Amino acid sequence: MTVQDFDISTHTYFLILRVQAKDPVSDTTLDLGELTKKWTFRKIPQNQQPTNYTTMSSSTPTNSNANIPLWSAAAVGFVSGMVYASYAMRLRDRERLRNACSRIQKHLLPPQRMALGPVHLTARKEKETILVVGAGAYGTAMAYTCAANGHKVVMHMRDPQQCEEINTNCRNPKYLSKYPLNPNDNAITGICTRDELAKYLAIPGIIVILALPCQKTPLWIQQHADLIGEDVLLVSTAKGLYLPTQQLVGHAILDALNRASQPLCFLSGPSFAEEIVQGYPTAVVIASDQLYLANKLQRIMSNGKTFRVYTSQDPIGVQLGGALKNPLAVGAGMIAGLGYGTNTLSASVTRASRELCDLAIAMGGHPDTIDGLSGIGDLMLTCFSSQSRNQRCGTRLMKGHAVDDILKDYTVEGVPTADVAVAYADMCGLECPIFRTVHALIHKTISPEQAVVSLMGRPLNQETTRANYM
Ligand SMILES: NC(=O)c1ccc[n+]([C@@H]2O[C@H](COP(=O)([O-])OP(=O)(O)OC[C@H]3O[C@@H](n4cnc5c(N)ncnc54)[C@H](O)[C@@H]3O)[C@@H](O)[C@H]2O)c1
Ligand SMILES: O=P(O)(O)OC[C@H](O)CO
């Protein structure tokens, strides 16, 4: 941040401020705004002075009087803001930088703030290399989003034919095949061999988006741990709880790497893959213990029009919200499969949201996170839309389809996650009647008729009583 120039004459003060800062992540200079007007500081009679800010005016100086104390106050404001901003930059914290810039702006009158313009941390300009692991529906949507923003995107998949098709015809033959994979003329490359994977994973600064089903993610990581450097940024999009060890997927990834830490982010929120590619405005959240990692991905993936990324420093809550909504969406589908109507669905989703909050908070999530995109937001999306595979699975189960047949047709994270959710509820001493009923219906330990009686016939109580605790 630099003061380019200022000039003080007896009656008039000319300020030309250019406000810049260095982005610690991209190492580029960010333009935060510019004050190019000539400001005149004039003395206002005591009884006309506003109480809480320094008065300046951009009118041409005529009879205005010099007012050194006012200028001093403004200068102190700017300098304190700059000191705070340089401190923020040392901390590599863009939020603090934003706050520092707001502090500077507080010393300006509203029209002057408008002249300066809003404080924008401009979008990252450099292009990244991004490796998307998994060429399913969500991997394709993630690759598309990153490629549309101009990044170099490579998708890794197991199937050589699928890979060939992507590289020759620019389409994923298995998922979202209607959409050409060259948004903004930036073609996505397919790779399928371990050697190619090793080559890309060795690129300094490579970002790896993991778009595999939750139950497959730790195994893939374990098989490729030797290729994944300790500074490779991993972004998990899996929305599930890992059944073999009953872990959050992040913990399972670290165990699979056999490392205590790794740059790791979690992307979650209400986002059907196809709607992303269709360009329907979509908002997601990316969480990391290290906020700067989430901030970095926020700038890489957001596009200002159709894809908006929020950041979070609650990776536990974001993982729990995205995973636990899935068995509840299976339950919503069961209601449709049993032929019930909107009363039943609305009541069930409302009570399900209470269970989701109670369980996620008991397991370490933050309440605000569960109220957000990765909790209630995604619960709404999947419970109310038959686009949801979890929702469709519930409907098919109630129509007599076998769960194994459904799982052969498509990924349903809610099925294995229901088992872990019930284990978590036991560990926390939570009643969670909807989770338990969905789990029992999936495993056919109760009939649909018994399920209705067990939910509707529970002891009567107040709506807001935290009766969920056993
Ligand atoms: N589809 C969506 O709209 C959506 C939205 C948000 C989040 N998600 C989450 O993203 C994750 C992936 O879901 P999806 O919809 O892309 O699933 P999908 O079934 O469409 O695709 C999964 C892909 O993973 C590949 N795969 C499976 N096992 C593998 C292994 N062992 N090694 C390598 N590749 C393997 C499959 O071949 C397939 O290409 C899930 O956790 C899901 O909840 C999906
Ligand atoms: O199709 P589903 O049920 O796996 O849901 C996909 C995503 O989780 C929606 O955000």
Structure report:
With 470 residues, the protein is of the alpha/beta class. It folds into 3 domains: 2-116, no CATH class; 129-313, Rossmann fold, CATH 3.40.50.720; 320-456, N-(1-d-carboxylethyl)-l-norvaline Dehydrogenase, domain 2 (Orthogonal Bundle), CATH 1.10.1040.10. The chain has helices at 68-90, 94-106, 110-116, 137-148, 160-169, 194-201, 217-224, 249-257, 273-278, 291-301, 315-337, 342-362, 367-370, 373-384, 389-398, 403-409, 414-428, 433-442, 448-456; strands at residues 2-8, 13-22, 29-35, 129-133, 152-156, 189-191, 207-210, 233-236, 241-242, 247-248, 264-268, 282-287, 307-312. The strands form 3 sheets. Strands 6-5-4-7-8-11-12-13 form an 8-stranded mixed β-sheet, sandwiched between helices. Strands 1-2-3 form a 3-stranded antiparallel β-sheet. Helix 1 (68-90) runs antiparallel to helix 2. The termini are far apart. The structure holds nicotinamide-adenine-dinucleotide and SN-glycerol-3-phosphate.
Radius of gyration: 27 Å
Principal-axes shape call: globular
List how many beta strands DSSP finds.
Answer: 13
Task: Give the cofactors and ligands.
Answer: nicotinamide-adenine-dinucleotide, SN-glycerol-3-phosphate
Tally of domains? 3
Give a quick set of tags describing it.
transmembrane helix, glycerol-3-phosphate dehydrogenase (NAD+) activity, Rossmann fold, binds SN-glycerol-3-phosphate, N-(1-d-carboxylethyl)-l-norvaline Dehydrogenase, domain 2, 6-PGluconate_DH-like_C_sf, globular, three-stranded antiparallel sheet, 470 residues, 13 strands, oxidoreductase, alpha/beta
